[in-house]
Amino acid sequence: MRALYSLIWGLSLPFALFRLWWRGRREPGYRQHIAERLGFYPASGSIPTIWVHAVSAGETRAAEPLIRALLATRPQHRLLLTHMTATGRETGGKLFADVGIRLSQAYLPYDINWMIRRFIRHFHPELCILIETEVWPNLIAQCEVHQVPVTLVNARLSEKSLRKALRLSSLILPAAHAIRAVAAQSNPDAQRLQQLGISHAVVTGNMKFDVTPPPLMEEKGIALRQRFGNRQVILCASTRDGEEELILDAFQEQLPLLSEKPLLIITPRHPQRFDQIAALLGSRNLRYVRRSAMEQDATMQLGNEVQILLGDSMGEMYMYYAASDVAFVGGSLVPLGGHNLIEACAMGKPVLTGLHTFNFSEITDQAIAAEAALRVDGARSMLQEALALLADAPQRQHMGRQAHGFFLQHQGATARTMQILDGFLKQNPR
């Protein structure tokens, strides 16, 4: 089965390269470092290397506390951080700009044996740490051949992903069995991983709880809020394709009925959709301003005539939360599985989420049980709940306090994960 998988990958390679070029029209990062995706890298020294693979921006942010812990406790090691997406690489560059030469970044090659083999022989990693959900059959097989232990940390596995993996069991199960250690986010994740034959999964919690909100982002959020006047603010964070239309339908339906007009902030999850959402707002004759325009004009104020701020920036999500009164977390109005609520809770904001949260089911249920979050059954009820919270300051403040307490209560996953990883790095003690 893996031989067939490798053949399909080889035949698909021209299409994969064309897709890079095509995506590069909107995200130039995809047209950079192409050779790395084929297993070719600049010369590097023979420093002991710990390899962390974080596919995109979300996984990269989740890995931050672990990477900083590894850098602090393993001074003789270099950290190699690999990605698959341009946004992941950009996010890593910003997060670790202060680290210097002890951390390097690269794209992981496509999952083709000879490319992965070149990668491993070039960097000679002592340990491979996969973040969240990445199980690549050839990558894991080549790590076995080259005696590189593979670990999966901050691991999560939804029911949907489990069903897909079981359909490809002859391909996925051998790779899953070869993973030496697994640190799962939750009990349901561990139970689903066990169905893949990973009996040694340990529940360590979600490392995203250990990410410290940057003080600078909170300061930027307060400064941004001052440019809105006295208006209240509803944030729709990490929205996905199809959600903005639903949200705007509800917003335009409610807006004429409101004496006090709140400002709506929409931050699409993916940067390639920024222009698309701007066009959508224009087609509906909504008065909006782009965050990028405010960045260019430091004196710009948003008067009451501006209905929507389009958050067309990356790496500023904490700022948007700091500037808002109520936050809806997207990916949950449509069946995409939702996004995590942790950043909103870290900033002490009441959280709203839709019905479709299967990617983060346990954490979402726990936040609702803790009175930090509310589940809504659609865009209209989301907006109605948001408006109700804006009108009820005591309840809004109560949910905000509960949210921040929920965030603090669940910290510690990084330390527990480090205890597991230490067993694979004993040859280089602290």
UniProtKB/TrEMBL annotation:
Swiss-Prot/TrEMBL catalytic activity: lipid IVA (E. coli) + CMP-3-deoxy-beta-D-manno-octulosonate = alpha-Kdo-(2->6)-lipid IVA (E. coli) + CMP + H(+)
Associated pathway: Bacterial outer membrane biogenesis; LPS core biosynthesis
Statement: the UniProt record of this protein carries the keyword Transmembrane helix: yes
Record keywords: Cell membrane, Glycosyltransferase, Lipopolysaccharide biosynthesis, Membrane, Transferase, Transmembrane, Transmembrane helix
Subcellular location, record wording: Cell membrane
Tagged with keyword Cell inner membrane: no
Broad class of enzyme this protein falls into: transferase
Enzyme Commission identifier(s): 2.4.99.12
InterPro entries assigned to the protein according to its UniProt record, in alphabetical order: Glycos_transf_N, Glycos_transf_N_sf, Kdotransferase
Family listed: Belongs to the glycosyltransferase group 1 family.
Function as written in the Swiss-Prot or TrEMBL entry: Involved in lipopolysaccharide (LPS) biosynthesis. Catalyzes the transfer of 3-deoxy-D-manno-octulosonate (Kdo) residue(s) from CMP-Kdo to lipid IV(A), the tetraacyldisaccharide-1,4'-bisphosphate precursor of lipid A.
Protein name in UniProt: 3-deoxy-D-manno-octulosonic acid transferase
Organism: Undibacterium griseum
Gene: waaA
